[in-house]
Amino acid sequence: MAAARNVAVGDGGLRLSRDEESVGSGGEGGKESPSAKRFKSDRFPLTRWEFVAFVGVFLLFASGLFCIYLTMPPADYGKLKLPRTIAELRTLKDNLAMYASDYRAQFILGYCSTYIFMQTFMIPGTIFMSLLAGALFGVIRGLVLVVFNATIGASCCFFLSKLIGRPIVSWLWPDKLRFFQAEIGKRREKLLNYMLFLRITPTLPNLFINLASPIVDIPFHIFFCATLIGLIPASYITVRAGLALGDLNEFMNEGTI
């Protein structure tokens, strides 16, 4: 009996040592434990050089935008701030209407530069810029401006993501990225139709599409054409809403409402 107990203890000690080795090696087959994976997913995904590259591109765009603003005619910049609410949009529209009529070319250049900058670096507020285009320029010219700026900004975001986007998208949306990659793989022969479908419908956010497209190897010409055509319906609705907002503001100032 004593020998049996010694064997049991010995087996237990053997099992214990093997368990300790498994824990030390990260589990069976040398795999990492879930806690280790969770710890790694909490880390900032960009390396030092990728972060430096992003900051460099941002500063380059910001410097160009600042130089454009320096060449524009004087204005009361205290009243020109990015709108965050409908009330601020109405105020901005009133302040910009006279300036846009006096310096149309310079104003359009500044408007387009600001829109593309915001779209490239995923800065919220482009919806208000689209509303402003409808209120200031009408449906046709406003639609052309919005679609042009949104397409150029999305294209810049595409190339920025091609440079440093893979770790960010994999960190923020791992499940969506796997789903998107699988769907793209099944639709290679009709990729333009699928990209148009994604742009027109809210299946995936436009921000995710801009960032993930170069990662899943979507050709740029397909991305560009799908963006240019697919953004027209939503942009038209937004521009029409901005025109209605401008008309409503005029009616309120005249006291007809």
In this structure, how is the largest beta sheet organized?
none
Helix content: over 70%
Model regions low in confidence, pLDDT < 50 over at least 5 residues? 1-40, 251-257
Quote the average pLDDT: 80
Estimate what percentage of residues fall within beta strands.
under 5%
Kindly report how far apart the N and C termini lie.
Answer: 100 Å
Membrane topology: Multi-pass membrane protein
Organism: Acer negundo (Box elder)
GO biological process, one term: autophagosome assembly
Region (Disordered): 1-38
What is the topological layout?
Elements: H1 2-24, H2 34-41, H3 48-71, H4 86-102, H5 104-120, H6 126-172, H7 174-186, H8 191-200, H9 206-212, H10 220-230, H11 232-254
Helix pairs in contact: 3-5, 4-5, 4-6, 5-6, 6-9, 6-10, 6-11, 8-10
Describe the structure.
The chain has about 260 residues and is mainly α. About 80% of the residues lie in helices and about 0% in strands. Helix 4 (about 85-100) crosses helix 6. It is globular, with a radius of gyration of 27 Å.
